[in-house]
Amino acid sequence: MKTDFLKYQAQTSPHPLAIEISHAKGSYIYDTSGKKYLDFVAGVSANSLGHNHAKVTEAIKKQLDAYSHVMVYGEFVQQPQVNLCKLLVTNSPKNLNCVYLTNSGTEATEGALKLAKRITNKSEIIAAKNSYHGNTMGAMSVSGVEKQNQAFRPLIPGTKFIEFNNDADLEKITQKTAAVLLETIQGGAGFIEPKNNFLTKIKKRCDDVCSLLILDEIQTGIGRTGTFWGFENYNVIPDIIITGKGLGGGMPIGAFISSFEKMNLLKDNPKLGHISTFAGNPVIAAAGVATVQEILASNLISETLRKEKIIRKYLKHPKITEIRGKGLMLSAILETSELAVQTVHKCLENGLILFFLLFETRAIRITPPLTISDEELIEGCKIIIDALDSTF
Known about the structure:
The protein has 392 residues and is of the alpha/beta class. 35% of the residues lie in helices and 17% in strands. The chain contains 13 helices and 14 strands. The two termini are 34 Å apart.
């Protein structure tokens, strides 16, 4: 299987981890030799409820028995779509009361950018350096790492970049700005939290110059950072939200959310201002409903903050310079990039799945399922410490 994987399937990096997967359950993934791996990555923050969660699986099977794809998005009334949109609105601030479902987070970024330009009749977008919002051309245009973008230029013009947490850059947001797009917590840059009310200051500046604030909640949302939406931690309410990853319980999904009045602009002048064939697929939407309902009905959201404390307690080592992030969106920053690579591979050998961040090469990603147990967290931290002890 690995030989065919390398021969026939397009690769995304020179050295994939290349575990041959047999099955997965709960916090564990099993390879074809029977070896089990404790999963500290959760499909890059996507498997909120772990692997093969009974309620998500049941919802998928039930919907498959009823119908799957029936029509392009927005034409037929489909209960899973309606239920998911209503769930998201019910758990969002009052101004965020209308949802457009998409196939992925990057597609949600595209929709949010189009919406902002349609609302304001302006084209300039302000984004942050070292940001990441997806890999389509529009999303790349507002992602601030030239190393990733340079091979694919020209991208969409009209984006300016500011430093995250730099108050002096607020002046770059002007009357010409359609929207400021920021990650609530910068992901690829190293899980950097906003400081000194930075997001609140950004929102005020946007209001002052008649611009919009778009917050990318693709990783921070759906309970991962101790509140349903990550921005609830930072005393700010955006004009548009982008979400994805953990929303589908491991199934491919995204959404952008704004007010009904703003979203209405996409349906006319021109008609079909934003369209998609498979967005809101009923099987995927059913998985999303089951995921969100389970997260809300349980204590998983509040538990993320308690579990964060466990990780910070047990993951102490001289070679770890700091742990960044919030809840179960954490990164351990090591002394060097080489050490990070060695640690990820050593832990993999010892049955623990870790991963890297896009731009902070000294970081190892720790984003386990929200359902992970205390014992599993402690076990995983011990494997990391043992790996660090074994490196020179």
